[in-house]
Amino acid sequence: FDHFCQIVLLNPEIKQKIIYLQLSNDGTPGQIEHFLSLFSLNTFLNLRSLSLIDLKENNIKQLLSILPFLSNLYSFSFTGTNIEILEILSKSKLRILTVPLLDFESTSANQTITGITSLTITDSQLDNFKLFKLFEYAPMLKYLNIRTLANSEMNKYNELKKNANYLKKLIINDCEATFENLELLLKHTPNLKIFSIF
Question: Where on the tree of life does the source sit, at the highest rank (predicted)?
Answer without folding.
Answer: Eukaryota
